[in-house]
Specification:
It is a single-pass type II membrane protein. It is found in: Golgi apparatus membrane. This is Glycosyltransferase 7. By secondary structure, this protein is an alpha/beta fold. The chain has twelve helices and 14 strands. The protein has one domain: Spore Coat Polysaccharide Biosynthesis Protein SpsA, Chain A. The strands form four sheets. A six-stranded mixed sheet has the order 5-4-6-9-8-10, sandwiched between helices. Bound molecules: 2-acetamido-2-deoxy-beta-D-glucopyranose. The site of 2-acetamido-2-deoxy-beta-D-glucopyranose has 3 residues, from loops. The site of 2-acetamido-2-deoxy-beta-D-glucopyranose (NAG) has 3 residues, from loops.
């Protein structure tokens, strides 16, 4: 994969988000408070794509080395899609599942997880080939119907989008819609779900948390896992913004990759201590607010907490956390949505000139055609100002379920943008089924794709 270049930019947008609907964006706070009603403190943040750096030395995929602490049994590289798992075999030999003291809950830490996982894999050898690259996507939303009348419909479409992406690449997906720890509400809810998913899936190496309001808008792009070989956690962000500006929005905790290992169990234990179920919650609210000058709300939140661990406990945690700024590991919809039309045109022009891309094929072999696309995308770049399809478009501030969207944009702007993103993605999928949307804003109609389209 080509090392992406990120351009310098000083564009800024003003963005407001309600306090309880935290706006997770890369921004630098500057303007001040805004009160939008007795019980709602809105916060005003200045969005600033602040001196994007070229990718850090870390982002160079050539740094790859073999990590010593990996089980050699996990190392056989096999195309995960072609695996033949033995789904009916669970030998009577005791594993961690048989230990009455082992708990899935956040309250009770897990020890020796690497060893336990390895032991389970050795007893279930059909899951060993390809284990090192295996990914389980985890997402979720609330347990009750959405307040926004179209909220559940939108969440269904966002979920469908994730299912499509996972099916194309042979990943599993787990969608959780209940608070596993009742006090860990909102953005804290993902932690117990991730811990539970790690225990439920010892065969998977990575858990990929993707917020319910994030959509895959490049169905072909795959995570450059090789780049993360020496790391246990990957998050989108800007290290310069974090280390030089101490901004809590220098990273986005709405999408991350976390390795299924003891380090991650320990990280989540430490991280969860900052959460609302913890006696230290108020203390952490203070600490995080003092640490991040641009954090104007009192409550401890997961994103600031993670930024704190990167900043203050770099030796202990930061060195294993990869801050990915080289492509849209997730990206802010406001800067992305306007680019879909031009990107569509660029891609159509490539298809006109490349017969291999016009060939109809089974969805199962899509990755073969993704490789052909790459030959034509060498100049496309990555992330902002590139004409590559943005990997993940994140609808931060749109709040599709509650409808309490950020006051900066109208509900209609959010709604149209979501339709557009979801149909842009859907076109890439439907294409393999012989159909496409005519218009990205028309979710309800499609046309049959002519043979050899778009020659
Ligand atoms: C799309 O392309 C047109 C024509 O090249 C250009 O004028 C316009 O600025 C582009 N729009 C965006 C959002 O990049």
């Amino acid at each position: 994969m080509v090392t992406p270049q990120l351009p310098q930019t000083h564009t800024s947008y003003t963005l407001m988000a309600k306090q309880n609907c935290r706006s997770k964006i890369s921004s630098i706070f500057s303007d001040g408070f805004l009160f939008a009603g007795a019980s709602i403190v809105a916060l005003l943040v200045v969005w600033a794509f602040w001196s994007f750096m070229n990718t850090s030395p870390n982002a160079d995929p050539s740094f790859l080395t073999t990590s010593a602490d990996q089980n050699s049994a996990l190392k056989t590289p096999v195309d995960p899609v072609s695996l033949g798992f033995n789904l009916r075999y669970d030998p009577p030999d005791p594993t961690f599942y048989d230990d009455p003291d082992l708990s899935y809950t956040m309250e009770k830490p897990i020890k020796n997880w690497d060893e336990k996982r390895r032991q389970w894999l050795n007893l279930h050898p059909s899951f060993i080939p390809g284990a090192e690259e295996r990914i389980l996507m985890v997402s979720g939303s609330q347990s009750t119907p959405c307040k926004n009348p179209i909220g559940d419909h939108l969440l269904l479409r966002f979920f469908k989008n994730k299912v499509d992406y996972c099916r194309i690449h042979g990943y599993d997906i787990f969608y959780n819609n209940i608070l596993l720890q009742p006090k860990m509400w909102s953005f804290w809810a993902k932690m117990p779900a991730i811990k539970a998913a790690m225990i439920a899936h010892p065969e998977t190496e990575w858990i990929w948390w993707v917020d319910s309001d994030a959509a895959f808008t490049d169905m072909d792009f795959k995570l450059p896992l090789d780049r993360y070989k020496d790391h246990n956690f990957v998050v989108h962000g800007w290290e310069k913004l974090l280390y030089e500006q101490q901004s809590w929005t220098s990273i986005n905790a709405g999408v991350f990759l976390i390795r299924n290992c003891q380090w991650s169990m320990d990280l989540m234990e430490t991280w969860a201590k900052m959460g609302p179920q913890s006696p230290e919650y108020d203390k952490w609210g203070e600490i995080l607010r003092t640490t991040f000058k641009d954090k104007i709300f009192q409550e401890s939140d997961d994103q600031s907490g993670l930024a704190y661990l990167l900043l203050k406990e770099k030796e202990k945690w930061g060195n294993k956390i990869y801050v990915e700024g080289g492509y849209y590991f997730e990206g802010y919809w406001v800067e992305i949505v306007g680019t879909y039309d031009n990107i569509t045109d660029r891609y159509l022009a490539i298809e006109k000139s490349e017969g291999r891309l016009r060939r109809r094929h089974a969805e199962r072999v899509s990755e073969n055609y993704a490789n052909v696309w790459e030959e034509h995308l060498k100049e496309a770049g990555y992330g902002r100002y590139s004409w590559r399809r943005p990997f993940i478009t994140h609808f931060t501030g749109c709040q599709p379920c509650s409808g309490d969207h950020n006051q900066m944009y109208s509900g209609e702007t959010c709604f149209d943008a979501m339709q557009k993103a979801l149909n842009f993605a859907d076109n890439q999928v439907l294409r393999k089924y012989g159909y496409m949307h005519k218009d990205l804003l028309d979710s309800s109609s499609v046309f049959p794709v002519p043979f050899n389209f778009p020659a």
